[in-house]
Design a protein that fits this description.
Blueprint: E1 22-24, E2 27-34, E3 39-45, E4 50-55, E5 60-67, E6 69-74, E7 77-82, E8 86-89, E9 95-98, E10 105-112, H1 117-124, H2 130-138, E11 143-144
Antiparallel strand pairs: 1-2, 2-3, 3-10, 4-9, 4-11, 5-8, 5-10, 6-7, 6-9
Length: 150
């Protein structure tokens, strides 16, 4: 997708921009909004799925939990967020997102600026090798921490 100025319009409920849906290690991501300034995407985390601790050196990230509960690892401290909560993840801060609840979690994520996170998700779609996910992510400004970090 070409990053440019925001355009007026509506992304219908349950759909991704231009019908795009990504499967990233068992989680479903649907892009909702894209501009140079920000990128928003809807997510569904089945029980037991997670995003290991990582850092976005040049992006602020936000998560609005819509349904369920996330367990979080924020700069070494454990926390949790439930439906209605907003999680703030400033650039450069290490964070991990875990669904340990036994039920699906739906959330709206967004980053600012967008940079090339959309391109990263396109490349990660359908991959099953976590090592390859880590390698490709590092080329797109997302750095995963060693497994012992959390």
């Amino acid at each position: 997708m070409t990053i440019g100025s925001e355009t007026a319009g509506v992304t219908p409920a349950g759909e991704g921009l231009s019908g795009v849906v990504w499967d990233i290690l068992g989680q479903t991501y649907k892009p909702l909004q894209m501009s140079a300034a920000s990128f928003a995407f809807d997510t569904l985390f089945p029980p037991g799925t997670f995003v290991p601790p990582h850092i976005h050196p040049e992006q602020d990230e936000y998560i609005r939990v819509l349904e369920g509960r996330f367990d979080l690892w924020l700069d070494g401290a454990e926390s949790a967020a439930v439906a209605g909560d907003l999680v703030r993840l400033p650039r450069g801060g290490a964070h991990g997102i875990f669904n340990k609840s036994g039920a699906a979690v739906r959330a709206l994520f967004w980053v600012a600026p967008a940079l090339d996170l959309y391109e990263l998700f396109t490349k990660l779609d359908g991959l099953t090798d976590p090592g390859e996910v880590v390698r490709i992510s590092a080329m797109h400004g997302v750095t995963f921490l060693p497994p012992t970090a959390a």
